[in-house]
UniProtKB/TrEMBL annotation:
Keywords from the named record: Methyltransferase, S-adenosyl-L-methionine, Transferase
Organism lineage string: Bacteria, Bacillati, Actinomycetota, Actinomycetes, Cryptosporangiales
InterPro entries according to UniProt: COMT-like (IPR016461), COMT_C (IPR001077), COMT_dimerisation (IPR012967), SAM-dependent_MTases_sf (IPR029063), WH-like_DNA-bd_sf (IPR036388), WH_DNA-bd_sf (IPR036390)
Gene Ontology molecular function: methyltransferase activity
Protein name as annotated: Methyltransferase
Length: 341
């Protein structure tokens, strides 16, 4: 073997770290058991932590020992575990350590990555369904606390941008908007607050959270929420149909169905407003992590603006304007003639 073919130490370590499932799972178990919080002020032994977390001392000790070796925990001569500076990142909210908690909606969905090979081979197996025997959305419907967590994650991202979305487009000119898959109503509430003459309807799997949000915001006289599916025809006649961050959750075939229902309901004069953080143009760096998450959780994908435009064209919708709102894009679509569905 020539020296050039001998992997460097650094290269070898990096490859092992990149392909290792042990450390990520050990970190996730520690987060799920709230080990970082338990040892943030005072180091503790595996026996103490096992008693606190109703766990097996021997097994927990072995997992924590691995994390000490990986540089996440410290271990003193009395077998007490503490946090390294790397480990303290597990306490910082901004890093969203709760996503590592295996009992949260995201932590649970991440485990579907063990089915990646099946997805690669088949092209259409949805990993989440392969793991849990049901779709991500059906599962949310079964577990109200997961649905609340999911809505909260979505609402956190929306709250940062809703003011810019509200001024980036003349929403009032639409008269009435239907927020299709509008979640817990964060966007609709923001639009209605900014445009006092605008009226709204929100449609999602469960109208409960949005109904409460509209009520709390004192907007129930101008908007209602409906439980229903955008895979079925939508209530017609509104000036605008908003699809915010919905398309990434679905395959091209399903997006055509959803966009088609929006186009039918909007008719010749209504508008369809697609709001998304589109990925960079083909060939440029894309957020491959998010793209693969969309694939595994839902059978969806991240798309470029051009790909979204092509899908819209396939159901007879053509762009009327494209605006930026914070780091997201609002693509305004209108009927372009007979649909090719
Ligand atoms: C990624 S979230 C986006 C939420 C919101 N539009 C936003 O931008 O924050 C996707 C939404 O689609 C909803 N959804 C999923 N399947 C649906 C269906 N078949 N019919 C209606 N809504 C659905 C989910 O409940 C969720 O609220």
């Amino acid at each position: 073997m020539t020296s050039a073919a001998v992997p460097s130490d650094r290269g070898e370590r990096t490859l092992r770290e990149l392909s290792d499932l042990i450390t990520p799972m050990a970190i996730r178990v520690a987060v799920t058991l709230r080990i970082p919080q338990r040892i943030s002020a005072t180091a503790a032994t595996a026996a103490e932590l096992a008693a606190d977390t109703n766990s097996d001392t021997d097994v927990l000790e072995r997992v924590l020992a691995h994390l000490a070796g990986a540089g996440v925990l410290t271990r003193d001569e009395n077998g007490r575990f503490g946090l390294t500076s790397l480990g303290t990142q597990l306490l910082i909210d901004d890093g969203r350590p709760e996503f590592l908690d295996l009992t949260t909606v995201v932590g649970r969905a991440e485990l579907s990555f063990v089915h990646l090979l099946d997805v690669v081979r088949s092209g259409d197996v949805v990993a989440y369904a392969a793991r849990y025997g049901t779709s991500f959305w059906a599962d949310l419907g079964e577990e109200p606390s997961s649905a609340v967590q999911f809505d909260q994650v979505m609402a956190d991202g929306m709250k940062k941008r809703v003011d810019e979305i509200a001024v980036a487009y003349d929403w009032a000119a639409l008269g009435r908007v239907v927020d299709v898959g509008g979640g817990n109503g964060t966007l609709l509430v923001g639009l209605l607050r900014a445009h006092p003459t605008l009226r709204g309807t929100l449609l999602d799997r469960d109208a409960g959270p949005a109904t409460r949000a509209l009520d709390e915001a004192g907007l129930s006289d101008r908007a209602t929420a409906l439980s229903g599916s955008f895979l079925e025809p939508l209530p017609p006649g509104a000036g605008g149909y908003v699809l915010s961050r919905v398309q990434s959750d679905w395959s091209d075939a399903d997006v055509r169905i959803i966009l088609g229902h929006c186009a039918d309901a909007a008719g010749a004069h209504g508008r369809v407003l697609v709001i998304d953080e589109f990925t960079a143009d083909e060939g440029a760096d894309t957020d491959t992590e998010t793209d693969l998450r969309m694939l595994m959780y839902y059978g969806g994908k991240e798309r470029t603006l051009e790909q979204a435009r092509e899908l819209a064209a396939s159901v007879g919708l053509t762009p009327r304007s494209i605006r930026r709102a914070a780091d997201w894009t609002i693509m305004e679509l209108g009927a372009s003639g007979p649909a090719r569905r």
